[in-house]
């Protein structure tokens, strides 16, 4: 099923922070820390192309989950994650970047257990210490974002490069999740990410 998620970012003294939220202990991604987002509904721009529907659904999900209003035109495509066929519930998810809009975060009590603004490095550190659960797409996205000094730089890079497609193979419990040159070793904490450039062997 089609889904969308939005990485809202803001500049900070430590570089930049992104908005992450913890899911309830039920349903998909139980207890995991994620970016706001969810499944695209039939009412999200019916009859339009997939990218438009993903944008509209992403904006709706952000408002429903954290109370912020995002302009769909402000969303910059970052990636698309297509999960392995072994999964019973498969979410074909479009990831977008956007600068955080004005306004206070108002979390939905039904969908958000906790939330915070945090640097990618701090979220990854919490995962490494076993106190935060992350799904592989969230882990890899945070890892790649961590290389940018400012959120505006990450947005500009995504706008220039276009969305990268991840067709993942493997499951976390099997120890390795991969997509092309991206390899995530998940057999033990801390998880280890590798980018194997074909030119470098």
From TrEMBL:
Keywords: Hydrolase, Magnesium, Manganese, Metal-binding. InterPro entries: NUDIX_hydrolase-like_dom_sf, NUDIX_hydrolase_dom, NUDT19. Residues 1-140 form the Nudix hydrolase domain. PROSITE patterns: NUDIX (PS51462). It comes from the Bacteria. The keyword S-adenosyl-L-methionine does not apply. GO terms for molecular function: hydrolase activity, acting on acid anhydrides, in phosphorus-containing anhydrides; metal ion binding. Its cofactor is Mn(2+); Mg(2+). This is Putative NUDIX/MutT-family hydrolase. It comes from Agrococcus casei LMG 22410.
């Amino acid at each position: 099923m089609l889904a969308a998620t939005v990485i809202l970012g803001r500049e900070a003294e430590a570089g930049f922070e992104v908005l992450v939220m913890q899911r309830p202990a039920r349903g998909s991604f139980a207890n995991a820390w994620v970016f706001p987002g969810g499944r695209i509904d039939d009412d999200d721009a019916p009859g339009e192309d997939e990218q438009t529907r993903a944008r509209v659904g992403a904006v709706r999900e952000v408002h429903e989950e954290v109370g912020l209003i995002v302009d769909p035109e402000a969303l910059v495509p970052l990636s698309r994650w297509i999960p392995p066929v072994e999964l019973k519930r498969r979410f074909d998810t479009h990831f977008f970047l956007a600068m955080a809009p004005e306004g206070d975060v108002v979390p939905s009590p039904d969908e958000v257990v906790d939330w915070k603004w945090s640097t990618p490095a701090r979220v990854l550190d919490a995962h490494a210490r076993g106190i935060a659960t992350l799904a592989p797409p969230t882990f890899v996205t945070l890892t790649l974002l961590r290389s940018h000094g400012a959120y505006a730089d990450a947005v500009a890079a995504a706008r220039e490069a276009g969305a990268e497609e991840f067709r993942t193979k493997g499951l976390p419990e099997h120890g390795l999740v991969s997509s092309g040159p991206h390899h995530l070793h998940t057999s033990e904490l801390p998880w280890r990410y590798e980018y194997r450039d074909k030119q470098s062997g």
